[in-house]
Structure formats: structure tokens, C-alpha cells
């Protein structure tokens, strides 16, 4: 077992546990939002499938309209119309025009379009007060070309990508199964919300914070309830967790007499590492039990959320083969001081905003027991070991993607 390792070493070891590949399932397009593509997608069609108009107006021959102006309008005979879905079947000849509407195919013989705002209809004729132009004609395949890849394996299906898949002609998509993530809370003091709160008790906030974080990262949370601080009960609960891709425990991994999760895993499983040089979340643990990766998160609410975001989220992204990064780093100017920690990399909670430039201010108390800071904050302020951040300095910030 390794102990007292750096944040970077811990992340590398966690990602190494994201082995194998999730099963693939096929879902209807209407159920694919938020899933991760399991194959490259080539367009089944050209889009548009012919030259069409980007505006409402009249399609005609550009050479017939040269020199048109308010003072000297050009007069063309209107021989038909071409709404989207009902293309004009004839051919546009000299001195002729066809009324076209956005998305409609350009009739044969026409090579330009004039906006309806620059015309006036007079019975079977139209007056043009400006030359027609080809610039508002969208050529065939301008958006999509049949046979070209536009979405990749590992792409998250966002609203835009879901629409793109539909435009490419796909009614169903192959996606990776959502990773199943067990969430087990430990501690004699933990009580479910809605139950009477005994003296010294705390409501089980960690389970529901983690549930949201797992769902937001593309996983399927499996709530396993809570377990008392008794080694035999903890082991029984862990072994009965069921088929999972990752198991999260909260609490029971620190130095106390009743921190039994670590002790159980040291005996019955294999602990990869314990304790990371960071704040909050130093007692983080990574273990295996019967081949199942287990992330032992600290029990303090902020520590639990921060460590999942920094390690559990990248694990799920790697398992899903996602092409987007699990989080990004930016730089912002500090509006309030942030305190560092000796020998530890620090992740403080901040409020990131744009005020002519990116700036960040504290959420208030940085105690790892103040869960309110994770509701108020939208970013983590990252400080290297042994460094404070004074007002006006620039620091690294990681936006909390479940907020921004």
C-alpha cells in the first residue's frame, strides 16, 4: 500500500483501475441524450441534399438582375413558387423568377436569390430593387456530406450532437452502458433524511451529493444505504454490493478507532493507496475487493464531493471512453485571499465570475464540514503546497461542471 502520495500520483493510480470496456447497447434516438457514443457515425445523407435557399425571396438568373436599383428596378415574370418540401418542377428562363422560401430547393436554371425585402410583387411580376446574389444559396452538402464522419466514439450526446445524429439519418444509436456506481455511507451517526435526528447525529447528505455527481458524470448510481461502524457489518455490505463498475464509500477511511472501512479493506481486499497530500480530502483511499475498484471517500461532506470530482469523475470518463476532459483549468484574478496548506495541494471553494476578466472570490468558511460552500461555489481554487493567494494575484481555478 502506498501512502502520502501526490494528487497527480493518486489520479494516475485511480485511472489505471478503469480497465476493460463497458458493454454496448442500442437505444432509440429519443433516449440517447446524455449517453456516450460507442461507434463513429458517418452521415447517411447529404444535408442539404440539393442546393437550397437560406432566405425567403425569389430565385432567378443573376445576369437578368445586374444593375437593379430603387431608381431602376428590374421586372421579372413569376412563373411559380418553391416552398420547403414542395420544390418547383420547372426551369427558370430568361426574365423569369420563382418565389422561394427558406430551405426550398433552388429551381433548375436559377443561380441567384434576392431577398423578399428588396422586391415588390405586382400580380404575375416582381420588381427587384437590387441585384440578385448567389451568396444566399446553400450548396448541396454544405452542412453534411454522405459518408463523412461527424460524431466520434466516446462523444457525449449533447443536444446539438443528438440533433446532428438525427440530421445524419439515425433513428437509433449504439452507446456504452452507463457505469454502475454503488454508494455506501458509513457511520453510527448517519441518519436518513426524514428520520428523527438523535443527539450527535447527521443526515446522510453524502449519499445524495454523490448520487447527483455520479449521474452528472454519466453514471448510474446505486444507493446501498448506510452501515454501522462494525467491521463484520461493513465487510458483509461490501461483499453484497452486487454487480458494479465502481463502489464509493463515504467515511471510515481516516485515522480514528471507528474508521473501519480502511481496516476491513486492508484485511479482506487490497489497498492501492491511502492518504493524498491534499486539502480537503487527504484520507482518500483506493482499494480493490474481488476485482471491484473501491474509492473510499472521506466522510466530511465537502471532502467527499471534492475527491469524487477530482478522482471519481475522471474514472467514469475513462471507463466510458469519453472524448471530453473531466474538468478544465482556467486562470482568474483573486478578489479575496485564499489560505494554502503546508506540504499539501489545496482546493478551496470559490465563486467564479466574469467582470471584464475572470475573477474569483471565496464562498466564506472553507471548513470541509461546511457543505453550503459546495452549493454557493462554482469553482475550486487550486493552490500549490505552501502557498497562499493574496488579493489581486492570479490563480488556477477548476470550474465545477455540475454548476457551470
TrEMBL record:
Q: Where is the MoaB/Mog domain?
A: 182-318
Q: Give the matching SMART domains.
A: MoCF_biosynth
Catalysed reaction(s) here are: adenylyl-molybdopterin + molybdate = Mo-molybdopterin + AMP + H(+)
Q: Which InterPro entries match?
A: MoaB/Mog-like_dom_sf, MoaB/Mog_dom, MoeA-like, MoeA_C_domain_IV, MoeA_C_domain_IV_sf, MoeA_linker/N, MoeA_linker/N_sf
Flavoprotein keyword on record: no
Cofactor(s) listed in the protein's UniProt record: Mg(2+)
Name any one Pfam family assigned in the record: MoCF_biosynth
- Which pathway does it serve? Cofactor biosynthesis; molybdopterin biosynthesis
Q: What is its EC number?
A: 2.10.1.1
Keyword Nucleotide-binding present in the record's keywords: the answer is no
Q: Which UniProt keywords apply?
A: Magnesium, Metal-binding, Molybdenum, Molybdenum cofactor biosynthesis, Transferase
UniProt family annotation: Belongs to the MoeA family.
Q: What does this protein do?
A: Catalyzes the insertion of molybdate into adenylated molybdopterin with the concomitant release of AMP.
Name under which the protein is recorded? Molybdopterin molybdenumtransferase
Q: What is the lineage of its organism?
A: Bacteria, Thermotogati, Deinococcota, Deinococci, Thermales
Amino acid at each position: 500500500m502506498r501512502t502520502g502520495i501526490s494528487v497527480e500520483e493518486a489520479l494516475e493510480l485511480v485511472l489505471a483501475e478503469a480497465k476493460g470496456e463497458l458493454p454496448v447497447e442500442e437505444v432509440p434516438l429519443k433516449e440517447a441524450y446524455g449517453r456516450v457514443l460507442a461507434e463513429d457515425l458517418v452521415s447517411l445523407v447529404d444535408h442539404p441534399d440539393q442546393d437550397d435557399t437560406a432566405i425567403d425571396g425569389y430565385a432567378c438568373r443573376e445576369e437578368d438582375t445586374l444593375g437593379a436599383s430603387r431608381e431602376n428596378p428590374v421586372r421579372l415574370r413569376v412563373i411559380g413558387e418553391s416552398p420547403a418540401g414542395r420544390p418547383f418542377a420547372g426551369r427558370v428562363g430568361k426574365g423569369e423568377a420563382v418565389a422561394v422560401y427558406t430551405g426550398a430547393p433552388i429551381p433548375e436554371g436559377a443561380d441567384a436569390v434576392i431577398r423578399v425585402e428588396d422586391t415588390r410583387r405586382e400580380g404575375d411580376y416582381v420588381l427587384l430593387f437590387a441585384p440578385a446574389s448567389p451568396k444566399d444559396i446553400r450548396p448541396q452538402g454544405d452542412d453534411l456530406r454522405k459518408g463523412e464522419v461527424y460524431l466520434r466514439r466516446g462523444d457525449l450526446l449533447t443536444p446539438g450532437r443528438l440533433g446532428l445524429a438525427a440530421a445524419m439519418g439515425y433513428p437509433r444509436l449504439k452507446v456504452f452502458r452507463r457505469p454502475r456506481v454503488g454508494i455506501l455511507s458509513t457511520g453510527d451517526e448517519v441518519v436518513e433524511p426524514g428520520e428523527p435526528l438523535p443527539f450527535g447525529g447527521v443526515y446522510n447528505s453524502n449519499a445524495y451529493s454523490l448520487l447527483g455527481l455520479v449521474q452528472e458524470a454519466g453514471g448510474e448510481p446505486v444507493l446501498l444505504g448506510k452501515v454501522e461502524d462494525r467491521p463484520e457489518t461493513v465487510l458483509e455490505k461490501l461483499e453484497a454490493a452486487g454487480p458494479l463498475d465502481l463502489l464509493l464509500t463515504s467515511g471510515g477511511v481516516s485515522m480514528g478507532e471507528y474508521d473501519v472501512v480502511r481496516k476491513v479493506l486492508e484485511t479482506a481486499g487490497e489497498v492501492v493507496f491511502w492518504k493524498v497530500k491534499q486539502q480537503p480530502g487527504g484520507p482518500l483511499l483506493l482499494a480493490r475487493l474481488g476485482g471491484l475498484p473501491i474509492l473510499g471517500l472521506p466522510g466530511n461532506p465537502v471532502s467527499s464531493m471534492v475527491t469524487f470530482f477530482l478522482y471519481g469523475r475522471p474514472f467514469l470518463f475513462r471507463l466510458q471512453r469519453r472524448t471530453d476532459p473531466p474538468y478544465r483549468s482556467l486562470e482568474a484574478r483573486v478578489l479575496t485571499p485564499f489560505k494554502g496548506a503546508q506540504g499539501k495541494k489545496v482546493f478551496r471553494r470559490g465563486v467564479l465570475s466574469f467582470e471584464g476578466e475572470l475573477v474569483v472570490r471565496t464562498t466564506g468558511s472553507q471548513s470541509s464540514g461546511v457543505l453550503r460552500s459546495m452549493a454557493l461555489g462554482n469553482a475550486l481554487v487550486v493552490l500549490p503546497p505552501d502557498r497562499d493567494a493574496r488579493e489581486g494575484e492570479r490563480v488556477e481555478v477548476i470550474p465545477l461542471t455540475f454548476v457551470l
